[in-house]
Design brief:
The protein has 20 helices and 28 strands. By secondary structure, it is an alpha/beta fold. The strands form seven sheets. Strands 1, 2, 3, 6, 7, 15 and 16 form a seven-stranded mixed beta sheet that branches. It is rod-shaped.
């Protein structure tokens, strides 16, 4: 197979491996599922999501409301003061005609009347004659010749460019007269499916309607929670497109230019008035940028009627007439609190005049879905959940970034960007990731705890087995040391400290007869259970051979070497891990002090005597047992003087290390023995052992420490 073919096969495998690593990380798969559901929910945009979004927009407006500034928009209010001076509502149309005459004298650019005169005035002269038959005939005749109050009001309305309010009804009624509508140019696809639709408009009486320059809808269509955040710029009623009151007032004030509605594939995008473009949402609604309700916008109708207010101040302004009296006005709940409906129209007109309409184009939905998706992916793939505090801080940063982006978009561009749903989605995705990571971490902790408990159980079981093995091993070694007062010619003492629970060192001694002591010290290569087993076998081989050959130590070692070599090859699997043992063994003639000994690769023992420096045995010896087949070991001799002591040891003494890895060394041992007491074997062994412990304090014991002291006291005496 060519290298190109191999590379082609490896690339898909690497890709699958990358996918596995990516999606097998804790929490990622469920978090991606949750993120997908959140994106779908946002795309479907149910009522609860819309409500959250709108509440967020309210919060933005509360934080940064539009600053009030005097504008050529005034409200003539039928307020409590007006009712107190001129009587309860409804007033006669003649009184309203007086008010309109006062307004028209100031030459405003447009008058918007937020009152629907749907029924005849009960105080009109003709209505009075018909309603009261006891009116004298002469008086009734005079009244009948007077014009109706509707005529008087219509005549007053003709003096000023007027836009009359039109309400809506969801019930169709027979039309009394043809309706007068504003022509609206359509751009794009048919806007009607996107608009609020009503079968009928509620208008003023035909005589009054004919006096106006236009009609504007006062249908506010509050949101589900009753808050008026946005108002329809157009509705569809009676088969016609109808502008709202504020837009129609703006059209009339600007000279009656053409109105247009622009529609895209996803809904209404805005309205045109001359060269001006007014952005809307997909249903043709504008978002007025509200200020708190200010009394500076209001002029009491009473002040105009009684001459307190100078009508000339209305020159060139847009004037709205409506009610604000308590219990009379139609109140609207806005993001900045309750205000009379007439002020909502005034603030809508202000927002259009100053270019302060808030914008919520259809594309914002796609942008917000993309934000939800992007923030979720960042939270899933980028946050360090192995450190929950840092991950939590990163989440707070992301949430703060989402809210600050929404605030900046509102403050500087007047775009309504939802920060709440992306933030809540981020928190939910983070919660899934964090909980899953914590669950996995907890499962891992429990698994590790279980494994640790299992290891402890195994270790405890092994410790029990090793304790038993140690007890068996130490039980193989002689523990009763001959010496005074039982014997006056000999003193023996030994100590062994395995580096592990069981070790590979050994010592042994046995009285072959009342006048001959055989003793040995050995060090098996390795540590632990294998070395302990090898040690037990070595002890048995040496002990048996010594009892058989006695002073012929050369034959003892030759036989032991053969048996240990065979055992070493078997245990070492053909020699790859062969084991061996160093041995020093001797037989002491207790009557003469003559010592015969053989050394197989072991450290040279010391001879200690009073008043002299310690002396190492001059050893010829041979290799460790089990290393060289058929090696012929030779016997060596030494004469001991009464009181002299032979101290044999393993390399665990001289090779002990301190915390700086410095060796104890033969030199230090030699120096210590120079001051050693010669009065007892046990005292010398304890002295060396304690000095090694002080030297290696704090360091781990690396090898078995074994000491064997044999002191010849002289020939045994009968007494």
């Amino acid at each position: 197979m060519s290298s190109e073919d191999k590379a082609a096969e490896e690339q898909p495998a690497e890709g699958l491996s990358w996918l596995h690593r990516t999606f097998s990380a804790p929490g990622r798969t469920p978090a991606l599922v949750v993120l997908a559901l959140l994106v779908i929910v946002r795309a479907l945009d149910p009522a609860v999501v819309q409500s959250l979004r709108l509440r967020g927009f309210d919060f933005l407006e509360e934080l940064a409301p539009r600053k009030y500034q005097p504008l050529p928009v005034e409200i003539i209010a039928i307020d409590d003061k007006s009712l107190a001076q001129y009587g309860q509502w409804p007033w006669s149309r003649a009184r309203l005609a007086q008010l309109v005459d006062k307004i028209s004298s100031g030459k405003p650019s447009v008058l918007g009347v937020d009152v629907i005169f749907a029924e005849p005035d009960r105080l009109s002269p003709g209505r009075l004659v018909n309603s009261d038959p006891e009116i004298p005939a002469s008086v009734a005749g005079e009244l009948s010749r007077l014009p109706s109050h509707e005529t008087v009001l219509a005549d007053a309305l003709r003096k000023v460019p007027t836009v009359l309010a039109a309400g809506v009804s969801d019930e169709a009624h027979p039309r009394i007269a043809p309706s007068r509508v504003t022509m609206i140019l359509e751009s794009g696809i048919n806007p009607r499916p996107f608009l609020f639709t009503h079968p009928e408009l509620l208008r003023s009486l035909p005589e009054i309607t004919a006096a106006g320059r236009g009609q504007g809808s006062v249908d506010m269509e509050p949101d589900r929670d009753g808050v008026t955040r946005r108002v329809p710029l157009f509705i569809f009623a009676e088969g016609h497109l109808v502008p709202d009151l504020a837009l129609e007032m703006l059209r009339v004030a600007l000279g009656g230019g053409a109105l247009g509605i622009v529609t895209g594939n996803q809904g209404i995008t805005g309205a045109t008035l001359g060269k001006n473009f007014l952005p809307t949402d997909s249903r043709g609604r504008i978002y007025p940028y509200f200020t708190p309700s200010y009394y500076a916008r209001y002029i009491s109708a009473a002040d105009l009627l009684n001459g307190t207010y100078d009508p000339s101040l209305l020159n060139g302004t847009a004037v709205l007439v409506g009610s604000s009296a308590a219990g009379l006005s139609d109140l609207a709940q806005t993001p900045l609190g309750l205000m009379p409906a007439v002020e909502v129209w005034a603030q809508s007109l202000e927002s259009m005049l100053t270019g302060n309409l808030l914008r919520r184009p259809v594309s914002m939905n796609l942008i917000e879905i993309a934000i939800v998706l992007l923030a979720g992916l960042v939270i899933i793939f980028s946050l360090p959940y192995e450190n929950p505090r840092i991950a939590g801080a990163a989440l707070l940063f992301i949430v703060a970034l989402l809210f600050s982006s929404a605030m900046a978009s509102f403050k500087f561009s007047k775009f309504l960007l939802d920060g709440i749903y992306p933030a809540l989605s981020s928190v939910m995705v983070f919660g899934v990731m964090l909980s899953e990571n914590l669950r996995v971490a907890e499962a891992g902790r429990r698994r590790l705890t279980a494994e640790l408990q299992h290891e402890r159980e195994v270790e405890a079981r092994l410790d029990g087995e090793l304790n038993a093995a140690r007890a068996i091993q130490l039980g193989l070694l002689p523990r009763h040391f001959p010496g005074p007062p039982d014997r006056n010619d000999l003193e023996v003492f030994a100590s062994i400290e395995p580096a592990r629970m069981v070790g590979g060192d050994l010592y042994d001694f046995v009285l072959l007869d009342p006048e001959h002591l055989s003793f040995a010290i050995a060090d098996v290569s390795g540590k632990g259970v294998p070395a302990a087993l090898f040690m037990a076998m070595t002890k048995e081989v040496l002990h048996t051979a010594t009892l058989r050959y006695r002073n012929a130590l050369d034959r003892v070692f030759n036989e032991a070497n053969d048996k240990i070599s065979a055992a070493s090859e078997e245990l070492g699997a053909g020699g790859t891990n062969m084991m061996f043992v160093t041995v020093f063994a001797g037989i002491l003639d207790l009557a003469s002090g003559k010592l015969v000994y053989v050394n197989a690769g072991h450290d040279s023992p010391f001879v200690i005597r009073a008043g002299a420096a310690p002396e190492s045995f001059p050893l010829a010896g041979g290799p460790p047992l089990g290393t060289v087949d058929d090696f012929q070991y030779s016997i060596e001799h030494r004469q001991l003087a009464p009181g002299e002591m032979v101290l044999a040891y393993t390399d665990g003494v001289t090779e002990a290390q301190d915390t700086h890895r410095t060796l104890y060394s033969s030199a230090r041992l030699n120096q210590l023995l120079a001051s050693a007491p010669t009065t007892g074997a046990k005292a010398v062994v304890d002295l060396v052992r304690d000095d090694v412990h002080r030297f290696a304090a704090g360091a781990e014991q690396a090898d078995d420490i074994t000491l064997l002291a044999v002191r010849w006291l002289g020939p045994a005496s009968s007494g």
